[in-house]
Amino acid sequence: MPTIKTTPEAILRSSWSLFHERGYKNTSLQQLADAAGLGKAGLLHHFGSKAGLMHAVIEYGIEWYRTRVLSIARGEGTIAERLTAILERQFQLVQLNDGGGCFFANMILETGDGAFAEGLVHFYKEWNTTVTTLLAEKFPAEEAKERAYRIFVDYEGSVMLFKLYKDTSHLTRFVSRTIAGLETPLNF
């Protein structure tokens, strides 16, 4: 197969999409190479192995989230407006690849505490720190931390129901519930 010149970022983007759509175990090195427009040798030259590529994809995904989703927390607007914008942006992403869900949650469920756990934990910690910091503008530190945790758990449950039923109402109801909850006392 003739290869085309491509950048490491283009390889990461195409691989992220394929892993999101098919999962880690159901994606072959040949499929990844084809999606990137490379031969397998070219792909291995850049990343060493399929696992090496997956590590790089996770780090690329975290950086992508940091700059395009989580950065919203430091923007203008009320806490409710910024949190709504973050959640709506995330929901745009979970609807990609025919409603593929949350890439990071999919990989956590598929690979568990295996070789990719460190990067997946890094994603959760970054998400949690960002949302906790945002909520700390309104709530005491411990309450902000608990609220961020509950938002994440509720978010992932809503994404699972969206994937199961292909019904975006699970996502929109979650956002409404979360924003309304900002005005409700939290019971520990």
UniProtKB/TrEMBL annotation:
Residues 28-47 bind DNA. It comes from the Bacteria. Pfam families: TetR_C_13_2 (PF21993), TetR_N (PF00440). GO terms for molecular function: DNA binding. Keywords: DNA-binding, Transcription, Transcription regulation. Residues 5-65 form the HTH tetR-type domain. This is TetR/AcrR family transcriptional regulator. It comes from Neolewinella aurantiaca. The lineage of its organism: Bacteria, Pseudomonadati, Bacteroidota, Saprospiria, Saprospirales.
